[in-house]
Amino acid sequence: MSSEVTILHADLDAFYASVEQRDDPRLRGRPVIVGGGVVLACSYEAKARGVRSAMGGRQARRLCPDALVVPPRMAAYTAASRAVFEIFRHTTPLVEGLSIDEAFLDVGGLRRLAGAPTAVAAALRERVRREVGLPITVGVARTKFLAKVASGVAKPDGLLMVEPERELAFLHPLPVERLWGVGPVTAARLRERGIRTVGQVARLDEPALVSLLGGGAGRHLHALAHNRDPRAVQVGRRRSSMGAQHALGRGPHSPADLDAVLAGLVDRVTGRMRAARRTGRTVTLRLRFADYTRATRSHTLDEPTAQTGPLRAAAGDLLRAALPLIAERGVTLLGVSVGNLGSGHTQLTLPFAAEPGPALDAAVDAVRDRFGSRALTRGVLLGRDPGVEMPRLPD
DNA sequence: TCTGGGGTCCTAGGACCC
DNA sequence: TCTGGGGTCCTAGGACCC
């Protein structure tokens, strides 16, 4: 783990709502809600009145009757996101996107070129504001985790650096919900034990946390509470699944209706897959029932594909097999996603001959570091020229 | 808090392989 | 013949994130 502060977490504020306020002056300074049935995003003026994203539209309007409700414009948000990520990548090549509106940037190599990380962060904020017209908050710290927590604390439209010598003083008073990976269930489990702050978590030993929360979450939380986070900023991560879903209302819905909805969903997903030049093998049918329980059913094809036909057929089989369950509980949401994306089709061009030896071994290690071991489970194609496929690496 | 649409990662059992 | 150890893949569920 680096002992220097090099990591930025940049996070656009109330992203969808800020784009709407940017594009329509009448919305500026006023409570804005994006999305009708459910709040997709809301401006800080609406947040001040208690409106939260994922809240039901009725409740949101009750809390804030004078809110201006606008329908989402996904194309505008995608365009704004692209413009902001261009600025990120112009700042440093080491950019790891987390979602449409946030990313980690490693600016460690820039000290001589562009100045200290806080100066880089301030310039970045200024540029996003000037060129894209959006407010953005940046957290600056020695680790990804601390940078993310810092941006959360600094929101909205802020900049906060956590100096190495005050990391624990910054971290320990925070409520556990601030920790990345602590949601309602984990927070409730901790609260039952009287644990509310990160400092209290840090006083528990790892076995106690593991028995309380399970192996993965327990070890994760123990590390974070002790400020251990060795993860590097990863460049070039690709989506591993693509999906689409649709809420149906309480029904009833005939099998033919469901099949028609399913066909539309598969069409949408495969269209996006082809546009992104991705293929996939695992089709997952997602169901939500009238009692808000959920189920998934999945099937893995022998060959990856982006064609509508085979994926549609597999999804149809899954739906037919789930009809008894649907008849029993009543379906309210249907979703399709395709996973196992792209493996076997990844091609990396490396600047050396792909012959066995120390150079190749080192390159494979570098690939593992950058993309994770999963990138190699189906073999990575190495080539000297784009478009030229080299033999598979041995496993 | 009564619920949209898009994702990630982890766990666990069973099948199957050497 | 009824038995080890190690590994991958598939399926299903669950927690979490924006």
UniProtKB/TrEMBL annotation:
Residues 7-183 form the UmuC domain. The record marks 16 as: Substrate discrimination. Coiled coil: none annotated. It comes from the Bacteria. It comes from Micromonospora marina. One of its GO terms (molecular function) is DNA-directed DNA polymerase activity. GO terms for biological process: DNA repair; DNA-templated DNA replication; error-prone translesion synthesis; SOS response. The active site is at residue 102. The keyword DNA damage applies. Monomer. Keywords: Cytoplasm, DNA damage, DNA repair, DNA replication, DNA-binding, DNA-directed DNA polymerase, Magnesium, Metal-binding, Mutator protein, Nucleotidyltransferase, Transferase. It is found in: Cytoplasm. Binds 2 magnesium ions per subunit. Pfam families: IMS (PF00817), IMS_C (PF11799), IMS_HHH (PF11798). It catalyses: DNA(n) + a 2'-deoxyribonucleoside 5'-triphosphate = DNA(n+1) + diphosphate. The gene is dinB. This is DNA polymerase IV. Belongs to the DNA polymerase type-Y family. NCBIfam families: PRK02406.1, PRK03858.1. Transmembrane segments: none annotated. One of its GO terms (cellular component) is cytosol.
